[in-house]
Amino acid sequence: MNKAELVSAIAKRADVPASTVDAVIAGLQEELVDAITRGDKVAVSGLLTVERTQRSARTGRNPQTGETIEIAAANTVKVTAGSNLKKAASAVPVS
Fold first, then answer.
1. What's the pTM?
2. Average pLDDT for residues 6-27, to the nearest whole number?
């Protein structure tokens, strides 16, 4: 599902205009980016948790040459599924 399909599905389910849903999703995106920039953790109970984490420096290997390289420390984003998402995923049979 892409963003346009998500906006359409939410608009239909909530019985609101798609433009309103699109604006809300844009606002959510902006707020998540701002929160991650500040180092804040965002938790939507039952749905997901988003937080900034740090990855320490490490030694890696160039897959083409086999040469070892130093990979610098970096900030990254961790998204953890909430209980409702985990429950929905576990209810689907493994194929």
1. 0.79
2. 97
